[in-house]
Design goal:
single chain, mainly alpha, globular
């Protein structure tokens, strides 16, 4: 694999692109029910179902199409697919500002999921073009892009919606994605040439044995499974966080403001700590950082189920974000180190699909568990899941104890 001499320029241009893409995915989420309600006359139950459908439509499509985009990128180049998905995302988001009924919105949310290849292909391109000794640092930086976008999205969306309208928010984000498209077109360089002869012999992505194309299929499979579990744990909290905050505040005070801050704290922590974990992983080995991340997450999730103070909840959510920063980008770093260059696009798209599956499972799990065991049960159940994941990882993938790549 040939590293481009301007890998740092690629990194920062693509950081901007992933930031905008992450923002586009998250900015309307807090106001989705309000936007849906403006598109018709719905009862409370019907509104909840339709809002959930609108929310899930994107992630369901991402889970199905991400491997397809990964295969396409490995055959035709990551930059080409990056440009296609960026302009596709811009168009689908812009059209959301023009919808007149909820079914049009659901269709466009699904279309947004179809063009959700910006983040994995930007990540794959950075991984392919960055010198191996800088990989952990670069992937830590690119993680702050989409994490920061996810963090800023709801805040900026709320500001724009109050200043203009929710519809205008879609148009502004679409315009920013178009700017990202122009910057990527003119400033990002890809030196990787696909190995078409090798790609001809790759199994179909719909073949259950497609992971065999990787030198370490077992490690790849278990890392993708870990991504699903960690993402499910993160998203299991979203359906109940505002209700839990309301309970801790005894129904008094600015509950929505506090809930918004609590929700954003893991993202803030990941934004700050991802590059630091990346540098540490380059020195100590990404495998060690991954294990530490799991241990810290388990330790910080359990107390959230028994605390009685909203301040302690905020502190623990921030610490969970630091722990997640030692898992998400580190999984990507290990995947990059153990994957041949001609399959980098595929493996990062599979990782995105795993995140989407985890988001859908987590959202459903949070509501279901909280109905049975109350809100505190969600945190305890998530900690148990993470503990089981760590045990399985150590048992089934003993290689994880060694420095990989």
């Amino acid at each position: 694999m040939v590293q481009h001499k301007n890998w740092e320029k690629n990194l920062w241009v693509l950081w901007f692109g992933t930031f905008i893409a992450g923002m586009g995915f998250s900015e309307v989420i807090p106001f989705l029910s309000l936007y849906v309600s403006s598109l018709g006359h719905f009862g409370r139950g019907e509104l909840s179902i339709l809002s959930g459908t609108v929310y899930a439509a994107t992630f369901v499509v991402v889970a199905v199409t991400a491997p397809m985009w990964g295969r396409f990128a490995d055959r035709h180049g990551r930059k080409r697919l990056l440009l296609q998905t960026t302009i596709g995302s811009a168009i689908s988001l812009g059209l959301m500002g023009l919808v007149t009924n909820v079914w049009q919105l659901i269709a466009l949310r699904a279309l947004q999921g179809f063009f959700a290849g910006v983040i994995p292909n930007a990540t794959a391109l950075v991984a392919a073009e960055t010198p191996k000794e800088k990989e952990g640092y670069a992937l830590g930086i690119i993680t702050t892009g989409y994490v920061g976008g996810n963090l800023i999205g709801p805040i900026l969306g709320g500001f724009l919606a109050s200043l203009f309208s929710i519809r205008i928010t879609f148009f502004i984000t679409a315009a920013l994605l178009f700017v990202s498209f122009i910057l990527s077109l003119t400033m990002v360089h890809e030196s990787f040439t696909p190995n078409l002869e090798k790609l001809k012999n790759q199994p179909s992505m719909f073949d259950f044995h497609f992971l065999r194309e990787f030198p370490n299929p077992k490690i790849v499979g278990w890392l993708l499974f870990s991504t699903i579990i960690v993402q499910a744990g993160l998203y299991s909290i979203y359906p109940i966080i505002s209700l839990f905050v309301k309970e801790l505040m005894h129904g008094h005070g600015s509950i929505t403001v506090v809930a918004g801050i609590i929700s954003s704290l893991p993202g803030i922590a990941m934004f700050i700590s991802s590059p630091l974990w990346g540098r540490l992983g380059d020195r100590l080995g990404a495998n060690k950082i991954l294990i530490y991340g799991f241990i810290f997450s388990i330790v910080f999730y359990f107390p959230q189920g028994i605390i009685t103070s909203v301040i302690m909840l905020g502190v623990l959510r921030f610490l969970v974000g630091i722990s997640n920063a030692a898992i998400y980008p580190v999984i990507q770093t290990i995947l990059a180190k153990i994957t041949p260059s001609e399959s980098t696009g595929m493996v990062f798209s599979l990782n995105q699909a795993a995140q989407a599956v985890g988001a859908v499972i987590g959202s459903m799990m949070g509501g279901y568990i909280s109905n049975i065991f109350d809100y505190s049960g969600v945190f305890v159940f998530t900690a148990i899941l993470l503990f089981i994941n760590l045990v399985l990882l150590e048992w089934r993938v003993p290689e994880i104890r060694k420095k990989l790549g």
